[in-house]
Amino acid sequence: MPLSDHEQRMLDQIESALYAEDPKFASSVRGGTLRAPSTRRRIQGAALFVIGLALLVSGVAFPATQISGFPVLSVIGFIVMFGGVVFAITGPRVAGGRDRSPVEPGAPRPKRAKGGTGSFTSRMEDRFRRRFDE
Length: 134
Prior knowledge:
mainly alpha, single chain, 60% helix
């Protein structure tokens, strides 16, 4: 369900206030977004899965690959299979995130002209009190 205009504005205000108060924390939390995997990436992931499956089966089928009865090659095959699936379904990260502003990621965000003095938390507390005083 998409956010209403009011909710989107509130979310943008909270995000900009977070950047204003602690830009280092905000940029570390923001991270990047994941893109959809490309066809090439899916094919590579499927190939890894098949290689892992072959390792898993050969580890069980050939007793020479077992160490003290433990199928080491099968475990490695399972890990390769799992990695292939993860590689196939995830896309590469995009560094920009969902930022809609033309400001560069390292530059500080501009301050808003409206609004009073004080920190973000004090403004939110004031809003909360005003709602329940009415």
